[in-house]
Design brief:
By secondary structure, the protein is an all-alpha fold. Helices cover about 60% and strands about 0% of the residues. The chain binds iron/sulfur cluster.
């Protein structure tokens, strides 16, 4: 495993690699297995050094990433003439904490409700009694499993992106489009669109849970609307790479 200092040098080396699209990883959905831009993504290139996610090495690795990032940030601040100590003395921002924002509270609560529901119901998992009798997967079942994969993948993703969007929303002029808040809320909206579609497919296959899933869908639609109202320019944000084709 690379040491923090070697990792920092590797970050610099990767940053100088030709053909990468700057910042592409900030506004994507982080689903690298399905991404057409892996060869142009710094985040993808650097994550290839990571150990497998279920191994015990992971925590040491993440610790080294943290140390390497702090080393790199210190260097950057020095080059810009900023004393890192001054940062520690800065006053907290005056904007309300995003954790208390109505939109974030709603999406956070939904993510945990859905998580609990998935844990309890384990949709798509065969019961032990029929496990030997399962026929080969037909197209409908295949779509159902893909939709479930989308639900699991994006469930917590949306609250993280909305939190990030709210965290920076007071930093820019209201008419500025290419801001981190708009980029973060745009990918949250894309994920919300996909989640709504995926839940519909799941519901078609689990009609016995129709009432519960409808409630999730209604809340998702409400969150989607509130996100669009809170970030009216989000859909106009041009994501590096993805929206430039
Ligand atoms: S841009 Fe593609 S490869 Fe890079 S982090 Fe996002 S999904 Fe993964």
């Amino acid at each position: 495993m690379l040491t923090p200092s070697e990792m920092k040098d590797r970050m610099h080396e990767l940053a100088r690699t030709d053909g990468l699209i700057e910042g592409i990883y900030n506004y994507c959905d982080r689903w690298c297995e399905r991404c057409a831009f892996t060869s142009k993504c710094l985040n993808y290139a650097s994550s290839k050094d990571a150990p497998s996610s279920d191994g015990p090495e992971l925590w040491d690795y993440l610790h080294n990433v943290f140390e390497a990032t702090m080393l790199m940030l210190d260097e950057m601040m020095e080059n810009m003439g900023i004393d890192p100590e001054e940062i520690n003395k800065m006053e907290p921002p005056e904007e309300p904490d995003p954790k208390d924002h109505r939109l974030y509270k709603k999406v956070y609560e939904l993510s945990f409700t859905v998580h609990k529901w998935l844990e309890q119901n384990k949709p798509g998992a065969p019961s032990p009694e029929v496990i030997d009798l399962i026929p080969p997967e037909d197209e409908k079942t295949h779509r159902f499993h893909e939709a479930l994969e989308v639900v699991y993948f994006y469930n917590f993703f949306i609250s993280a992106k909305i939190f990030r969007a709210l965290s920076g929303s007071g930093d820019f002029e209201p008419e500025e489009v290419q801001t981190d808040s708009n980029g973060s809320s745009k990918i949250a909206l894309i994920a919300l669109d996909r989640l709504i579609a995926a839940w519909s497919v799941v519901m078609e296959n689990l009609m016995e849970h129709e009432d519960e899933i409808l409630k999730f869908l209604l809340t998702l639609a409400e969150i989607r609307k509130q996100t669009e109202i809170t970030f009216p320019l989000a859909r106009k944000f041009v994501r590096p790479g993805f929206d430039e084709l």
